[in-house]
Amino acid sequence: MSSNVGLTTPRGSGTSGYVQKNSAFIKPRNTGYGAPYPPVSGANGSSPMDRPFKQRLPDKQILEHDRKRAIEVRVMEERDRLEEENERIEEEQAKTSKSKSKTSSKKDAEGDAKEEGEDEDVEKVLSEEEIDARCEILRVRLLKELEDELEGGGKGS
Question: Where is the composition biased (Polar residues) (predicted)?
Answer without folding.
Answer: 1-23
